[in-house]
Description:
Chains A, B: It comes from Clonostachys solani. By secondary structure, chain A is of the alpha/beta class.
Amino acid sequence: MSGTPNAAGESSPSNIASYKIIDSTLREADQWATNTLSRDTKVAIAKALDSFAVDYIEITSPSLNEQAFEDSKAIAALGLKAKVDAGVGSVALVIGASSFSSDVSHEKSMEKIQESAVEVITYLKSQNVEAQFSFEDTFRSDLVDLLSLYQAVKEAGADRVGINDIIGGTTPRLVDDNEKLTERKGVINGDIECRFHDETGCAVGNAVTALEAGATHIDTTVLGIGERNGLVPLGAFSARMLVAAPEYAKGKYNLKELKALETVVSEAVNINVPYNNPVTGFSAFTHKAGIHAKAILNNPSTYEVFDPAEYGITRNVAINSRVTGWNAVRSRVDQLGLVMTDDEVKAVTAKIKQTADTRPLTIEDTDNILHSFHAELHKA
Amino acid sequence: MSGTPNAAGESSPSNIASYKIIDSTLREADQWATNTLSRDTKVAIAKALDSFAVDYIEITSPSLNEQAFEDSKAIAALGLKAKVDAGVGSVALVIGASSFSSDVSHEKSMEKIQESAVEVITYLKSQNVEAQFSFEDTFRSDLVDLLSLYQAVKEAGADRVGINDIIGGTTPRLVDDNEKLTERKGVINGDIECRFHDETGCAVGNAVTALEAGATHIDTTVLGIGERNGLVPLGAFSARMLVAAPEYAKGKYNLKELKALETVVSEAVNINVPYNNPVTGFSAFTHKAGIHAKAILNNPSTYEVFDPAEYGITRNVAINSRVTGWNAVRSRVDQLGLVMTDDEVKAVTAKIKQTADTRPLTIEDTDNILHSFHAELHKA
């Protein structure tokens, strides 16, 4: 794949340390199955996105209706650092160009598409407005159509072209092939924005692959909300990029704002943060297995891909289970300020494992066992 | 990437239509932060996994304790089609070989690891037991160590070698590079099992890439449960593979059993199915936006990567929003058996959009609007 020279010795630009984030939470929330947001909520989300420092905030098209128009004015009036996208700071055009999304005969629709696309882009640029052009269904579109259309919109002055997987059907390999090809053909030499839906669980993998292959902008939503399975989740993507290029990810974005941002959005659209959500899922930094817990206490990097402190989150070594080890219990004993020898800790560990075999234990349960065991010791 | 000849004209085996699924739900649930399963629950999950037709069911090592031993006997006694893995039908060895997971000096630990690995595998094969050998932390391990260790265990007769990303830190590109290299070196020519954790959202993307690059077995858990962020979710993976190679995915696995399987597991470990879970998330096949809804009614493939009916699930076109279109309302009107002209449907659509601007609407709300509008019409 791209990013490093491959077997052919060919290399291509990797943008894993120079990408921009275009967040679509506000736009997708309006289209999504469960919710319509009030203006106050939209403003709160826009502010939280700006605190995280996303580069663009995409909102519902003001042309949709009166409310969307007023909402967009309210958000534009906030004077955020982020560019507000949708007829305010810039305009994004989307045209479905695959045979699936064209009712009329294919050739005919392509001519039409190209005509109107060029016309609109030319007008926007004459008004000094940032113009982005996207295929809605890139990976099922005819390649010749794609390339000629991209060429046309670039010539018309489009600031960015978009590669979209609206159905969530593509894979890292196809993303890599697609971008390498457009690159080799020299068709797209400017900014490339990618929008990946998540129907088959590959959105984040596709996004990092796209950046390695030369894409420059990634569309995200907070918690991945969006129609059907939504798109690239901002949190998972930021974790992926924190590992790929730590300095850029930490320097450009305020990772510690993620949890607050996800809280605002999850409450606004009334969803729970998934138990396995990267970074903020409730067990993301909980360690339970004995050997894991021991290693974590010695060196967190053993089982943590990054330090949760980067996100202002603390790890938790759980001892309320049958697979706990005495090292984990030792650290909890010390946390509680109880005085025990290693042999005593091993003894109480055996007791905890035994009890955990018979019934589920909460952290409180295990703390009680530790306290009463400790009391027994000092009574004796 | 692999699967198709790359720029160098080099091609490698793609196993997207010949993979096997090793499900670790029962093993991971025991290690996970929230729950310990009763024997009855384990048996129920094992049966549900067998109904879906996973190839292997991995369970907690019987050596852990009395209960694990009895549980494994109970599951082995079920006479399932799937192979039960962990000292019953076969044995999986895991050794942490990266510098992170070795306490003693690196070289020394590598000699030790190789010695004991070869010893155990030789013994297992002498007992006619299926033996699998895994690195716990493949992608942070020294390449020379990796290759020589793989070579040694293959020579010792290991049936499968495992490539693990225990920290969830790898990407599709790194997976592709890793497998292409081991292939080219001819080190691994037999079965390759891959286990990808999901800390940075790439587990499914890594899994499909691994299969394209020559891997043969993928580890999954139901709903992706597992320590921290868990690993490749069975549902998302099956959806990914249904798109990649429909005939194999439909022919070999009972996709219609997925929802029941996920229900058993989510209740057993007491978690909610994430709102954006592929296939079974509550809005996975809900369509709301006007243009999307219209297209879906004309041709579902426009915005659906596969037919939900493959999983025994039905789609839902929501009309309870400001962005609904009259085509969607038309289809709901027909579903409800109400008689309206197109103009009348357009009128009631306007009414719905108007109301949705002022307050969130449920499906019941919109049905009420349709019924009363219809009643008005026929009163007049």
